[in-house]
Automatic annotation (TrEMBL):
InterPro entries: ModA, ModA/WtpA. Belongs to the bacterial solute-binding protein ModA family. It comes from Pseudoalteromonas fuliginea. The gene is modA. Keywords: Metal-binding, Signal. This is Molybdate ABC transporter substrate-binding protein.
Length: 233
């Protein structure tokens, strides 16, 4: 049960890694925070990190990695006590049209995206070289390259495929292979409350909601692993 009380409805500005935007919207449909209007700004984790450092008025940052939230804490931009590991990302190899063969592989840009770094690590160790990468600005953009048919193969987030199938029931979103998690670096998705927020109670409510048992179980259904399931890795 959420213990933090909020007296009046207020807007919470949440910076969200692109892979988690649709998922967070799905989670919030149950109105878990009745006194809070959550406004989502989605981009790659690297872009959002830069915006926060340069003064963007976010209250919460939900990153696709652990490096940037912890860097914000060290630099004084985020609260140490607020740090959570809300999910662990999963990668899939998606090739919806097997007859379409080319030498291009869509991945998120490793410079900005933790999913991109994990994808590059997997591809460099399991694909024939040289690899002709097509870089998306983030993992959602990489997914869209394959979805549009412009690229035949992509390393994408399992959550993107699950969300697309849920919305369309199109069988092409089921034609993927989940990659073994021991074949790429962990995608540890952490979140923090930004130190400058004036909406601390609402921000804390959101963090508590994300870590609630029911939410964590729903995240598994939506294409993620959770921290407790990673004990053996």
């Amino acid at each position: 049960m959420l213990s933090c009380s909020v007296n009046a409805k207020e807007t919470l500005q949440v910076a969200v890694a692109s892979n988690f935007k649709t998922v967070l919207q799905t989670l919030l449909k149950k109105s878990p925070l009745p006194n809070v209007d959550v406004k989502i700004s989605a981009a790659s984790s690297g872009v959002l990190y830069s915006q926060i450092v340069h003064g963007a008025p976010f209250d919460v940052f939900l990153s696709a990695d652990d490096f940037r939230p912890q860097s914000l804490i060290k630099e004084g931009y985020a609260e140490q006590s607020s740090l959570i590991t809300y999910a662990l990302g999963e990668l899939a190899l998606w090739q919806p049209k097997t007859e379409k063969v080319n030498d291009k592989v869509a991945i998120a840009n490793p410079r900005f995206s933790p999913y991109g770094r994990a994808s590059e690590h997997y591809a460099n160790n399991h694909f024939k070289k040289p690899i002709n990468y097509v870089y998306g600005n983030n993992i959602t953009h990489a997914f869209q390259f394959v979805q549009s048919g412009n690229v035949g193969v992509g390393l994408v987030a399992v959550s993107s495929l699950r969300a697309a199938y849920s919305n369309t029931q199109d069988q092409k979103y089921l034609d993927y292979t989940v990659l073994p998690t021991n074949q790429y670096p962990d995608i540890i998705q952490q979140g923090v409350i930004i130190s400058s927020t004036k909406k601390h109670a609402s921000a804390k409510q959101l963090m508590q909601f994300l870590m609630a048992e029911a939410t964590q179980q729903q995240l598994i259904e939506l294409g993620y692993r959770i921290k407790d399931n990673n004990a053996s890795k």
